[in-house]
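Both lines are quoted verbatim for reference:

——
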Amino acid sequence: MRIDRGSVVALLVCAAAIGLILESRVETPAWPSFRGPSASGVADNQNLPERWDATTGENVRWQVAVPGLAHSSPIVSGDRVYVTRAVSSRPGATFKPGLYGAGTASEDRSVQRWIVIALDRRTGATIWERTAYEGVPKEKRHIKATYANATPATNGQTIVTFFGSQGLYAFEANGNLRWKKDLGVLNAGAYDLPEYEWGTASSPIIYKDLVIVQCDTQDESFVLAADIRTGDTRWKTNRKELPSWGTPTVYQGPGGIGAELITNASNFIRGYDPETGKERWRLGGSSKITAPTPVFSGGTVIVASGRAPERPIFAIKPGGQGDISLTGDADSNTNVLWHKRGRGSYMPTPLIYGGIVYVLANDGVFDAYDLQTGREVYRQRLHHQGSGFSASPVAADGRIYLSSEDGDIFVVRSGTEFQQLAKNTMGEPLMATPALADGTMYVRGERHLFAIAPPR
């Protein structure tokens, strides 16, 4: 059969076009940022084990050492797991877990290396490792914190890491540095004791082609969106705020109101237009220290914070305009569906699962509320060893997983009655929130990363 030259050229052009299409297709990351898609903490159809043993290796597919200190959580995209860490040049550098009131800063101001690592999801083998920054920290950290608290984020092509005063970095999937951005010295210390530098913890998020970071500090507070391709600032919105540590969330739910960027902070919980950074609404009444991330389900957004005396939980209807704060002793209004005082979580982000809001306090008190009404479903104290909880709950297939600073993961059945199914010991403190993807739970401990999964 004879093929003329024109047909050959046409075939080559068609093949090239198909190649470009295939090359541009990127698998949607399974767990792309802190707490997974939309910060929900939920990933069903995982078939995770109820019990495992980190000592014997039962239902532990692999574990690898991850030197250095970090409270950042793992993220998962394609066949990769990404983690960050900060490696001190001081031998024996550590943090202090536990329930205590002292809010002092660590004295470790030695030279650090801020590192990003890509691991093979199936084996735990290191694919690449890059040092984003090396030098003396530009600010101190809390004695319970590390210099790598923020969880990275990815869209499958670009991995974004935020190391506070050391900068914002974007890496390509092959490990090449795409861009870096200096946001200045970010002093996120105690609002009433400025000399106590605590370091940053808010994680970056990705919305369309924007990398969005929330930076609330002693000196300057702002929310910033950078172009994910170049790092150029697309918008920056200054705000009058106290230091905060929560990660923002973009609400994309029913109601036809469009996307809303929601931030949790002390003076106001705020809703912004994520495309422009223009403020739409604000809600007062939060704690003076805020850390949990806003979460949503359907048309309801849950925002909590846990410093006394306020310790509020707000159930918010998106789409508000102006000041939507509650007045007097009111627990609801047009935009606030319900509100509770003295029940908010200090560090862990709430979980919405099966129409129930689960709130885990640092001391192990575990509350459940009806999402629509705020009615208390139950209140139960977890019998932990004493160090408390900083990691956020995650859920899959009717089970909720609660990681403690003591190194135990409690498995609780979801629903209207509290039922503890198991307590699994990892052998080291757990400060980071697990990632759930492809039938595996990735658990980041103080010294190791574990892959928890049933036998193949």
